[in-house]
From TrEMBL:
It is an enzyme of class 3 (hydrolase). It comes from the Bacteria. Residues 29-358 form the Glycoside hydrolase family 3 N-terminal domain. The keyword Transcription regulation does not apply. It comes from Poseidonibacter parvus. Belongs to the glycosyl hydrolase 3 family. This is beta-N-acetylhexosaminidase. Keywords: Glycosidase, Hydrolase. It catalyses: Hydrolysis of terminal non-reducing N-acetyl-D-hexosamine residues in N-acetyl-beta-D-hexosaminides.
Length: 364
């Protein structure tokens, strides 16, 4: 009996010490490494909040936008090439660790760098897919060079969703997909990924497990794809994972009761771990779509969101500060830190996410 009590005490001590191997400062930095944050500012200095966030916490990434969503006549981050190059240099020079500087640069309606602010304009995926692979290679080669020249090292693209539902307003009607045939989507997305990789720019496949069959827009609210989703929407992911071309994948805020009866994909362990990690064998970085979209923020608190997302297998949490009241990095870190202390999020999950993120940083 004494031996059993002693053994139990030793195990308890071991578990406790394992949870406390990191100082508060170390753990906060590990959490911050998992965050991609939006901010306001065409330039920064030591007084800027984003400068302090990167300096103090070693923030994982930022996302840049051209317009301020509250006043589209105002600039949020991108004014012109010279200004952007200065901004990305400022951001990258704060710490020795490489910062992910991300942007949505698909082409067509979704491109933060365009002819209006002095950059090359990229055609939408639908148009590129009608002009042949040679044209695609040329256009995405130019895109890769443009991103590299301007200090952007992560592109939240290509869209590998399939044009399944002709009434889909967020993907299909906007021409954001290369087509309804998985083979065609794979062909053109491969060119996109290859050309960006040549310029040391990380491509992000989106939106897992597929948004092309949806009727709704997850920016605006809850989206149920249970009766419209097709398993062939996984084909691009299967191909790119198998061929080591999937460095980063973005989750979708879509609900499919047949894949998870309770949670949307972003918060679903069934989808993000059991399907994507275990079945499809994805070993790269999994990033959320913007967690301030109404499909998530309308139904879950910040504490619920980050806890479910991290426990589901997500590595990086995107808070674009674009669609809602801005969230501070401290609020995000403190929420996750307390959930770790309360054993609602395991240290192991934080460690694994950091390992994947660091491996991707080192790869590029």
């Amino acid at each position: 009996m004494i031996k059993k009590i002693t053994l139990l005490a030793l195990l308890t001590t071991y578990v406790f010490s394992a949870q406390n191997d990191y100082s508060k400062e170390q753990l906060e930095k590990m959490i911050a490494k998992m965050v991609v944050l939006g901010f306001k500012g065409e330039s920064i200095d030591k007084k800027s909040k984003i400068y302090q966030d990167i300096k103090k916490y070693d923030l994982g990434g930022v996302i840049l936008f051209d317009k301020d969503p509250n006043n589209k006549k105002k600039i949020k981050n991108v004014k012109n090439p010279k200004q952007l190059q200065n901004l990305t240099k400022q951001l990258q020079s704060i710490n020795k660790t490489k910062l992910f500087i991300a942007i949505d640069q698909e082409g067509g309606i979704v491109q933060r760098l365009n002819s209006k602010n002095g950059f090359m304009s990229i055609p939408k995926a639908k148009d590129v897919s009608t002009k042949g692979l040679s044209f695609a290679k040329d256009i995405y080669k130019d895109l890769g060079k443009m991103l590299n020249t301007n200090g952007v090292n992560v592109n939240f693209a290509p869209v590998v969703d399939l044009n399944i539902n002709p009434n889909n307003t967020v993907i299909v009607k906007l021409g954001r997909s290369f087509g309804k045939d998985p083979r065609k989507v794979i062909e053109y997305s491969s060119v996109f990924i290859d050309e960006l990789k040549k310029q040391n720019v990380v491509s992000v496949l989106k939106h897992f497990p597929g948004h092309g069959s949806s009727l709704g827009d997850s920016h605006k609210g809850f989206v149920d794809i249970s009766n419209t989703w097709d398993a062939k929407e996984l084909e691009p992911y299967k191909y790119f994972i198998k061929n080591n071309q999937a460095d980063m994948i973005m989750t979708a805020h879509v609900f499919n009761k047949f894949l998870d009866p309770k949670y949307p994909a972003t918060l679903s362990k069934n989808i993000n771990t059991k399907l994507l990690r275990n079945k499809l064998k994805f070993k790269g970085v999994l990033v959320t779509d913007d967690l301030q979209m109404r499909a998530i923020s309308k139904h879950y608190s910040l504490k619920q969101t980050v806890t479910l997302a991290i426990n589901s297998g997500v590595d990086m949490l995107l808070f674009a500060n674009q669609l809602a009241k801005p969230l501070s990095l401290e609020e995000i870190i403190n929420t996750i830190y307390l959930q770790v202390q309360n054993k609602q999020i395991s240290i192991k999950r934080i460690e694994v996410a950091n390992k994947r993120i660091n491996a991707l940083v080192n790869k590029y």
